[in-house]
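Bit of a strange request maybe. I'm writing a small parser for structure token strings and I need a real example to test against, not something I typed by hand. Could someone generate the tokens for this chain?
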Amino acid sequence: MNTRKRNFLRSPKLLMLGIPTVFLAQCAPQCAPAPAEPISVEAPAPAPAPAPAETVAQREARKSAADYLTYVGGFSRSGLIEQLEYEGFSNADAIYGVDIANTDWNAQAAQSAADYLKYVGGFSRQALLDQLLYEGFSPAEAEYGVSTTGL
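Reply from user aminoacidic:
Good idea to test on real output. This should exercise your parser:
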């Protein structure tokens, strides 16, 4: 027996457990624990790249769209995009600024219809509907807007 096995067989820990050393001497070669299987640990999937920060132009378009919606109101989506382009924003930045606002376009149509009746007047139901369609509201938005006026 080599020294290494002998030291293993006379280990205080084994003796404390009450395992007879004669048994260990006989089965040590066969009782040795099997070599551990290599554990394959897959690396977690990388976190998605953070969304790119908005550009300065996008930030300004977002702020301008929010101001128009808050202080003027009554804009259709396409009408607000046109307004931002008129101010000098690119089409892409204007679309970004309008879409990031998550606006209720039905509410905008209702406000526009109410403003037309209040400040211009003289509209029939069909004329008001046509005006909202001209302003860029969808047929459903225009119909909603007119329906809120009582016409």
